[in-house]
């Protein structure tokens, strides 16, 4: 097969096929005496893996890093490593999907004022529960995204409402909202013109439209990425 044949089979421009070889996404392609590239079925499979990996819009930087790692291993014919990376990617995507759904549920619970739970959490427990570092939460606090109650021993304690607000922040950060943008949203609580109650803030049409649009887009991209990585795993099993 020549470049144009692979391009047609994988629905890309011929230049993309050449670039993928240059970037190491497919294995080195043998040349004929006249310089023409000659591709095998392996190259087609590697192209298909790369196309699946990069098909969706990458809202999160971590997703592109995972996808690139898989494609690079595939291009180097390290298929066991590529399979391991793909399985890790799938677990990551499923976890992100779960946290996104929890954030939507958290917003709904806040709106409905279903926060009667008196459970208190430590800083470490909250970080573990949301699978983020303790330093990330401290950074959000330092940047004014939320305030946390402290004990007499100066230890942070979190209520269920705090955790739900952190889930919302986590989702907005996952969708590439800057800390400054998130802070601007929550600073409305402190203004004289806006309500000083989180329940009321989240009920504002502007916030609801933005937040639910963001989560819809995030869910759509995560679902597509999950479908695609499962197909990648199937492809890699045939190459092992």
Care to give the gist of this entry?
Helices cover 67% and strands 3% of the residues.
Describe this structure in words.
The structure is a single chain. With 240 residues, this protein is an all-alpha fold. It folds into two domains: 1-53, Multidrug-efflux Transporter Regulator, Chain: A, Domain 2 (Orthogonal Bundle), CATH 1.10.1660; 57-240, Orthogonal Bundle (Multidrug-efflux Transporter Regulator, Chain: A, Domain 2). It has eleven helices and three strands, in the order αααααβααββαααα. The protein has helices at residues 3-10, 14-22, 41-53, 61-75, 79-111, 123-130, 134-142, 160-174, 179-187, 198-203, 205-239; strands at 121-122, 149-150, 156-158. A three-stranded antiparallel beta sheet has the order 1-3-2. A hairpin with a 5-residue loop joins strand 2 and strand 3 (156-158). Helix 4 runs antiparallel to helix 5 and helix 5 (79-111) runs antiparallel to helix 11. It is elongated and about 80 Å long. The chain starts with a helix and ends with a helix.
How many structurally independent domains? 2
**What is the count of β-strands?**
3
Model regions low in confidence, pLDDT < 50 over at least 5 residues: none
Using the alpha-carbon principal axes, give the shape.
elongated
Give the biggest sheet: 3 strands, antiparallel
The number of helical elements comes to: 11
Rg of Cα set = 23 Å
What is the highest CATH level, the class of the largest domain? Mainly Alpha
GO molecular function: DNA binding; DNA-binding transcription factor activity
Pfam families: MerR (PF00376), MerR_1 (PF13411)
InterPro entries: DNA-bd_dom_put_sf, MerR-type_HTH_dom, MerR_fam
Domain HTH merR-type: 1-58, 120-188
């Amino acid at each position: 097969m020549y470049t144009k044949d692979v391009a047609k089979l994988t629905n890309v421009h011929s230049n993309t096929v050449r670039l993928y070889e240059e970037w190491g996404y497919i294995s080195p392609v043998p040349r004929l005496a006249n310089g023409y590239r000659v591709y095998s079925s392996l190259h087609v499979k590697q192209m298909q893996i790369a196309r699946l990996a990069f098909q969706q819009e990458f809202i999160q930087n971590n997703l592109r890093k995972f996808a690139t790692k898989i494609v690079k291993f595939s291009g180097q014919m390290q298929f066991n490593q590529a399979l391991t990376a793909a399985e890790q990617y799938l677990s990551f995507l499923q976890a992100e999907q779960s946290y996104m759904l929890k954030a939507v549920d958290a917003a709904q619970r806040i709106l409905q004022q279903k926060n009667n739970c008196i459970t208190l959490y430590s800083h470490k427990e909250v970080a573990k529960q949301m699978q983020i570092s303790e330093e990330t939460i401290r950074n959000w606090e330092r940047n004014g995204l939320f305030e946390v109650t402290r004990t007499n021993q100066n230890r942070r304690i979190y209520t269920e409402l705090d955790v739900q607000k952190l889930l919302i922040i986590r989702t907005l950060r996952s969708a590439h909202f800057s800390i400054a943008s998130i802070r601007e949203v929550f600073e409305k609580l402190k203004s004289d013109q806006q309500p000083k109650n989180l329940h009321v803030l989240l009920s504002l049409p502007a916030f609801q439209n933005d937040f639910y649009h963001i989560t819809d887009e995030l869910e759509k991209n995560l679902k597509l990425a999950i479908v695609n990585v499962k197909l990648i795993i199937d492809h890699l099993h045939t190459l092992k």
